[in-house]
Amino acid sequence: MGRTVVQLTLIGLQLSMRSVKPVVFSQDDWDIYSFHINSTVTSRYATTVITSRVVNRMDESKEIEFHVRIPKNAFISKFRMFIDGQVYDGVVKAKEQAQQQYTEAVSRGESAGLVSSVGRTLEEFKTSVTVAAHKKVTFELTYEELMKRTHGKYELQIHARPMQPVKDFKVDVYIHEEAGINFIDVKGGLSTKALANAITKTHAWVYFYPTVDQQTMCDNCGEQGMNGDLVIVYDVNRNNELGDIKKSAGYFVHHFAPSNLPRISKNVVLVIDKSGSMQGRKIEQTRIALIHILNDLAEDDHFGLITFDGNIFPWKLELVQANSKNVESAKNFARNIQAGGNTDINQALLQGANMLNTHDREGSASILILLTDGQPTTGVTNLEKIQSNVRQAVAGKFPLYCLGFGFDVDFEFLEKMSLQNNGVARRIYVDSDADLQLKGFYEEVATPLLTDVTMIYVGGTNLTQTNFSHYYNGSEIVVAGEITDNNIETFTPQVVAISVMFDLRYLSAVIFVSDDLIQRVWAYLTVKQLLDKELQLSGPEKEQVKKEALRLSLKYSFVTPLTSMVVTKPLGETIHVLHKPKECEAPQSMKPPGRQSISRHGGTSTRHRSDNVGEQHKQRQCKTSSIHHDLDSVANRGFKRIFIHFKTNQHVEIDTKGVTVRDGQTETHHTGQDLVTAGSVTVIMRNNEIDIAAGDVRLVILVHEKNSIKFLWPVLRQHPSANNTDGLLGDGNASDYSIASPLMMNCWLTSADSALQRPLADFVVPQL
Ligand SMILES: *[C@@H]1O[C@H](CO)[C@@H](O)[C@H](O)[C@H]1NC(C)=O
Ligand SMILES: *[C@@H]1O[C@H](CO)[C@@H](O)[C@H](O)[C@H]1NC(C)=O
Ligand SMILES: *[C@@H]1O[C@H](CO)[C@@H](O)[C@H](O)[C@H]1NC(C)=O
């Protein structure tokens, strides 16, 4: 038998290990006394505190887990645990520093944890602590976010999943907006009929107090209680078209969102990837979205449509007016797009930019939109070269928006390219609503009201971004800054912009408010924008920007991609280090409840989400570890060689003689007892085991010897918080050497095809 490489899933492995014990759900060992979510929004800045009080009902100490989901855009700013009269506060540290503590904890053999994962709009926060018999613990997590206005509204998303029905369960949302609230609505999976009478909406306060019965009876509920979202949707009054400016303690924030202006006609060029990987549902949904978009064009808009694979297929060589004849003909073209071929992003974007450049743009707003699901594979494929070509072609004249379809795209590349050209990148999730996601994005930019917007603040300093190429109806421009010497006399805000036929010049009045939040809004926006800027730069400039972003993250105690929160736990227990992931890291699709993972306080039984494995497979590109084994060495002896791939450029190869670590171009070989670090991978080699920590995954490879033949056995000590690891279970015979008396397991490996066509959970067996 030739050497066959098999991918083995971490999850699968864990399921098979764990499933040795039957999964029993018991309510007796722990109890949530109370679970409160309290969110206060002041001037569009939301501060949310989640408090959970849990008691260990057992006569022995027990590990209690706190596991919640928070919006991706938010920064965690505080975490504390109260145990037995003691407070344990999380401390925000520079990432390198936290990483060091983490590595040290791992080298002491402790199970330090990293927590991070990304879904469409939420990411996960998870920590646990050992609580003595009959003692209580209170977890308190605070996160902050600036509400972003899209489609004429703000949406505050609250995820409720206490993991068991809770007697004292409360969600309170208070909205304080000086200008008054125009409307307020409650949506989301929890806003259903069964829970309707648990939700009360007053003018500026929404509260949700479901009874224990309601928590088990609603659509998204079960034995484990609620699992779903509450989305508070609202908009503020805008009596003053100049927007409102609030100031406090030397800082100001300006919200600018005029809506009574006439629209500006636009020139839009859509550049659509039709390469082979778009085949099937993606291209179908793209066709549907394109037809919607074409239908929505106004008669005085001009548009262009380019599809590409290894070649470029423009529908027309120039922009044409969106009259009904042209729109019909373009819709026909769109209906007939067929997928196949390579991906020449460079040529496609240059042609799109050229079409806009040769069109008369006077008095209109030009927009270039790229939709792709992969990386450049032909033509110019060097990412930096593409970026510099595109930047040169666009030359700051119009924004470029990049839509990355699925997880085979290099999202960071798209993000950088968009930011370099005054646009943004957006991920389109491969799902049944992908066409709506595409359409939704288009609608955000469908109605330009102003171009060349410059926000001027005489007497202001340390300003966040002040120049915006376009302002779209339904969105909002937010600028924050410091008022020089806190001198309001000399502080003069001004907006200069181009509207349809005239130049606008606004002067705005300043409202005084008294809360410290304004400074935090400024810090939040500044850090977000510095992180975007850092992405675009290189060399010493990048370091400078990074340093400043880090300084502010530390000063305001924000967990950002540059910092981590270190949680020291009670005596003898490990620290936990919490990272904020980047968009590209650890993606995880958030599926409708009912298909979610069930992870219990105490963590002895874990059933995993049963998401579409095919999609998880796609997501691997972005991050994630996978293990490869030499199949022919399996038999019931374990493995001869194990490969672990982490991210795209870190690889660890373990055989019975030693460990080879490859980090990018660097390759090192290690034998004997050693501690090796490479990027985010830490390898500790001991006498007869090898510990590997990579991201939030911790794996132990046991080295066994039987009949003087050495072999390896992988054991997952800490499963990844993002359950996006993929791979296969098998059906060969193998012994589980991770437990004292090895058990024979006969459903351990299986063929790739059958595994990838069924949800992972299907492979869970209650008993072996
Ligand atoms: C929620 O937070 C607000 C502001 O921090 C506070 O005034 C209020 O008492 C809190 N409500 C609850 C129910 O904890
Ligand atoms: C902008 O949006 C508002 C509603 O938010 C709407 O009343 C107005 O007509 C829109 N303006 C244009 C030009 O479409
Ligand atoms: C903002 O725009 C103004 C006017 O268009 C220009 O003078 C200024 O240099 C721009 N500032 C930045 C930071 O790009």
UniProtKB/TrEMBL annotation:
Belongs to the ITIH family. Residues 608-618 have a biased composition (Basic and acidic residues). Residues 584-629 are annotated as: Disordered. One of its GO terms (molecular function) is serine-type endopeptidase inhibitor activity. The keyword Signal applies. This is Inter-alpha-trypsin inhibitor heavy chain 3. The keyword Iron does not apply. Residues 596-605 have a biased composition (Polar residues). Residues 16-145 form the VIT domain. Keywords: Glycoprotein, Protease inhibitor, Secreted, Serine protease inhibitor, Signal. It is found in: Secreted. InterPro entries: ITIH (IPR050934), VIT (IPR013694), VWF_A (IPR002035), vWFA_dom_sf (IPR036465). GO terms for cellular component: extracellular region. Its main location: secreted. Residues 267-445 form the VWFA domain.
